[in-house]
Structure prediction request, 803 residues.
Amino acid sequence: MQTVERITKLSLTREEMLQDYRIACESRQASLTGRKEVFMGKAKFGIFGDGKEVAQLAMARFFRPGDFRSGYYRDQTFMFAIGELTIQQFFAQLYAHTDVEQEPSTAGRSMTGHFGTRLLDDEGKWKPQTSAKNSSADISPTGAQMPRLLGLAYASKLYRQNPELHQFTDFSVNGNEIAFGTIGNASTSEGVFFETINAAGVLQVPMLVSVWDDGYGISVPAHYQTTKSSISEILAGFQRDAPGEQGYELFKVKGWDYAGLCEVYQQATQVCREQHVPVLIHVEEVTQPQGHSTSGSHERYKSKERLAWEEEYDCIKQMRNWLITSGYADHAELNQIEAEAKEAVRVARANAWAAFNTAIQEDHAQCLHLLDQLSGSLEQNASKIATIREELSKTINPLRSDAIRAARKALRFVRHEKSAAKRELVKWLETVQGENAERYNSYLYSQSDESALLVEEIKPEYTEDSPVVDAREVLQACFDAALAREPRLFAIGEDVGKIGDVNQAFAGLQDKYGEIRVTDTGIRECTIIGQGIGAALRGLRPLTEIQYLDYLLYAIQILSDDLASLQYRTKGGQKAPLIVRTRGHRLEGVWHSGSPMGMILHSLRGMHVLVPRNMTQAAGFYNLLLKSDEPALVVECLNGYRLKERIPANIGEFTIPLGMPEVLKKGTDITIVTYGSMCRVVMEAAEQLETVGISAEVIDVQTLLPFDLEHQITDSIRKTNRVLFTDEDVSGGATGFMMQKVVDEQEAWRWLDSKPATLSAQDHRPSYSTDGDYFSKPSADDVFERVYAMMHEADPNAFPALY
Prediction:
């Protein structure tokens, strides 16, 4: 464990120390006031950073432009200190103000304590990062900030070690940036924490983790959380023995010791920044004066002795004592700072509430006026409209939804009317509903001119000399061209480097482009994804591989809660165009041939999910994604790498558009919708169906998110009047998703003469062996018989029962 020699005189001026004290007092008062606002009903929930103020001030002192934070929802003091959060913005988030100018972190989409800086301009383009103090967007799942933190630090390593990246000075100055991470002591029990700590030690990246240790995880004390009740003690083996060796620098410091904290952070950041060594600072004896959150009281689970100790060792109280005893300030001066802090918070809170309320009151007043007009124009139901209007007028602290509810309810009573007043109310409702869609529903996907949906289609080109090769070689050629073209591109994953991945799509590319571009990782799916997210946030173009689709479950939480929601939860303020490559569908065995597509589709809204049937399609998707600014998952066919395909002459350039199904076979009797490896199965069945007089049209959807943007499947059903959706997922999975999209959303039910049908795999994991595959997943025989049964129902004379 590293010890720090006491510095008799801090490298801070008296004015800087008093400014820190002012920020601490303002932050504490914001926490106290925020809690009251929740209890008064003006906010839904509060979770605050009281007790962590002084440690965060010390960390902020050594946080430089270009650095990144990946943090914890109690870091308000740090954000105040680096100048990336105002007190008014803090309260705007508490009230869920949807104006991005008032609440730039999330535009009201995340609860209080979720901070982030706007890395993108209004056009969705990157702002310079090296001249800014940057914070990645917070998420609530405890510990889930850690994988992304690894990637933010890994980017510094790439920017330092890859000379081709030195040109990108808006993102890095030779990799000198630190990624600062913060986490509560209890959350260090999460597996993602340990996985990240180990990965950073292996990679030797400039990652500095601060553990705020208040001795509890909500009500559960540390001895239930951590072996030896100390994260630094159990991580002691990570301490490197000497400079230049693999390992960490570990520090311990008290959370109430301002001078000690500044000394530790000064030394820790120096070694982290200069030597690219990961660092962990265990900040002990932190207090939490208001308990965990507004949902409960810590008096219920802390002893009187503990509460008394926390009052005495409150970090602000201790800092005040130190300033006085060290001769930097007197009681009167600090009393004045405290009074001014209280007033500053009062004014900021009032301004935030006024700004929040004013925007809503405009809609509120307009709705009341329109309801007045409507009531006055009616002969019947006027009293009912007047009652609705009266109830709305009495609403204290109205929400946007209050006026909307009132208008919608009123329109039910005038559904037979055709008055001008009704038309005005409908027009207003449509307008505000559109405005609220922008406030609450926008930016699930990119809205920039680099959106994947806007990338120009370039068709593959073939010549007489285009070679026929194993399909894996198509991907190899695609990745080779991409690595040559784009210096920011790198690929990481288990076995990707030395052997070129288990299916050889990167064979020879590490030798050609170097280990820094094509890199092996440990077996750690969660942090492979995190490594990619963080690097993508810093302007790089990572391609991260999860070896098998089944193993995506290790990383699904990070993909879902962090990556897929990033553009949405920042309202277009941040993006991470990470490409996740994996392989799945048909092969053999429980753990290598799953197709949990329904789970993926429901978990990863905000990412594109692409399911190419062969490697040429996959290559076209990779080329397109590298021209876009959006994250995506590409699921290659596990049994397709050794099938034969032709390499397009424009292997590095052709693109396949998203959301555009392809008709593989035209037909007139039934439409069969599928994707991936099932395309070959369905095509075989379609040929067999032809022999008994059934003409099947086979459609490969190609991408599940987005899905059939131009309703081509419904166009097919208009002709065939029947549809079968089939895939290898469990029943009700992706087949159910496709049916809902087509039959409900596209309204294909209008053209159906038979009920829509699905054919999926068995509900268990696929069994091993060729027979296991046959009896676990739909076969050509199954497709044939399901289609034949539908035709038998329609015309039993022409298609008598098979059994």
